[in-house]
């Protein structure tokens, strides 16, 4: 199976200015995911998708290929991820390069255990999946069976639609949330259904020690505290 590593890194970050090339312990942020992508033996190759020549030059320095410049219409902060993914698939196809699946690796999740990407890729291939995401377990107090949504002004209902709460923590089914580290999906899922998560979807449980999702400067300061531990 041919699998493309796709690293998105647009310019114009507001929460953390110049986030993707900002130095974290002396290394540009995207350098961390570039290093992990290069180590992944099951990726056919890895590229950068960016609207910035400056970001592209940094990416190439850290071993990523730069086959195209992403158009502005796919680079705004409101542009859905599936748009730049579709653009990458179709642009490479025009160049005679087709891939069975895409492995989306976001610079905003810079820390991963050694071999984690290959672990996810192997699970995707072995499970004959349409998509796979890396996840963390939802703490029991936030389990969807114990959370509520508003059904009318001032009125709540159980978020799962059940009539009664599950009384014991031990009886709660496990629930998971995406940690943002790894997304893998078939190219046809994007081209036919315009989504990156769907169909038969698998998961790999991440190590919470490595969790980091960089959106604000507070997140950045936490990353600075963590970076020397790995």
Polypeptide structure, described:
The structure is a single chain. By secondary structure, this protein is α/β, with parallel strands linked by helices. Helices cover 27% and strands 22% of the residues. It has a six-stranded mixed β-sheet with strand order 4-1-5-9-6-10. A two-stranded antiparallel ribbon has the order 2-3. A two-stranded antiparallel sheet has the order 7-8. A hairpin with a 2-residue loop joins strand 7 (148-152) and strand 8 (155-158). The longest helix has 14 residues, at 81-94.
Number of strands: 10
| Proportion of strand residues | 15-25%
Shape designation:
globular
Specify the helix fraction band: 25-40%
Features:
alpha/beta; globular; six-stranded mixed β-sheet
Give the SSE layout:
Layout: E1 3-8, E2 23-24, E3 27-28, H1 29-39, E4 45-49, H2 53-61, H3 81-94, E5 101-104, H4 116-126, E6 131-137, E7 148-152, E8 155-158, E9 176-186, H5 187-193, E10 201-205, H6 217-226
Parallel strand pairs: 1-4, 1-5, 6-10
Antiparallel strand pairs: 2-3, 5-9, 6-9, 7-8
């Amino acid at each position: 199976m041919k699998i493309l590593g796709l690293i998105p890194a647009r310019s114009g970050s507001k929460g953390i200015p110049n986030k993707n090339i900002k130095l974290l312990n002396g290394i540009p942020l995207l350098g961390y995911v570039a290093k992990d992508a290069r180590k992944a033996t099951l990726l056919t190759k890895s590229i950068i998708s960016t609207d910035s020549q400056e970001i592209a030059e940094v990416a190439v320095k850290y071993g990523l290929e730069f086959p195209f410049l992403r158009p502005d219409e796919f680079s705004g902060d409101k542009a859905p991820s599936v748009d730049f993914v579709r653009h990458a698939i179709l642009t490479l196809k025009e160049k005679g390069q087709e891939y069975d699946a895409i492995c989306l690796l976001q610079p905003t999740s810079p820390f991963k255990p050694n071999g984690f990407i290959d672990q996810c890729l192997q699970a995707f291939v072995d499970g004959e999946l349409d998509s796979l995401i890396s996840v963390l377990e939802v703490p029991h107090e936030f389990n969807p069976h114990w959370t509520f949504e508003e059904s009318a002004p001032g009125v709540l209902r159980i978020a799962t639609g059940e009539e009664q709460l599950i009384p014991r923590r031990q009886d709660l089914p496990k629930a998971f949330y995406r940690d943002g580290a790894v997304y893998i999906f078939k190219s046809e899922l994007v081209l036919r259904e315009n989504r990156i998560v769907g169909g038969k979807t698998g998961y790999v449980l991440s190590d919470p020690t490595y969790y980091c999702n960089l959106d604000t400067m507070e997140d950045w300061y936490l990353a600075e505290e963590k970076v020397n531990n790995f």
